[in-house]
Here is the input.
Amino acid sequence: MNDKVEKSKTNEQTGGPSPCQNIHGSSCNERHGHENEMRLEFESRSQNESFARTVVAAFAAQLDPTIEELADIKTAVSEAVTNSIIHGYVDEIGIISMHCSVCENELTVEIIDLGVGIEDVNKAMEPLYTSKPELERSGMGFSFMEAFMDDLQVVSSPGSGTRVIMRKKIGKAGINKRFIPQAYEMEA
Here is the structure.
C-alpha cells in the first residue's frame, strides 16, 4: 500500500497551486522546472543531521532568506533527516538523499530514504505519535515540518522507504528590496 498525505498551507492561503509545484508546467526552466538545484547523499548517521542542515542553509542563501526563514528551513530539514535516521533505518546504516531546488522565490526540499517505510502516514503525522516511545521521542517531527514550511507532502509504503517533500516561499512577508525602494535609491 502506497500511503501519501499532503498538507498544504500554500493552496489554502492562495487559492491555487504555487507556480513551482508542477515541475513540468512552471514558469522556471522548462526542462527541469526549477532555476537551480542540488542533490546530496549521505549515510544515516546522527552526525550527518547537522551536515544536512548546514547544506540546505547554504543552498537557501541564494534566496536571501531572513534569519527566521532560515531557522524554519533548518529545523524542518533536521526533523525529516532525524526521522529517516531513527525510524527509516532501524538499527542499520542506509543512504539518505536530499534534493533541493529553487523556483522563483520558493525552495523545495526532498528528504528520501529507502528504509522500512511508514505503514500509516496519517497516524504518523498525528502530534505526539511516535513509533519509538522507548527512545523518548516527542512525536512532533511532522508537526514541526508542517508548522515551519508552507507545504508538506509525505509519500511512503512499508518496505519501500519514505519521501518527504517540503516547500517554503522566501520573502512572502514582504521584506524584499522591491518593497523598500527608498533604501536603494541612494546607491544610484
Remarks:
- The chain has one domain: 3-185.
- The chain has a mean pLDDT of 78.
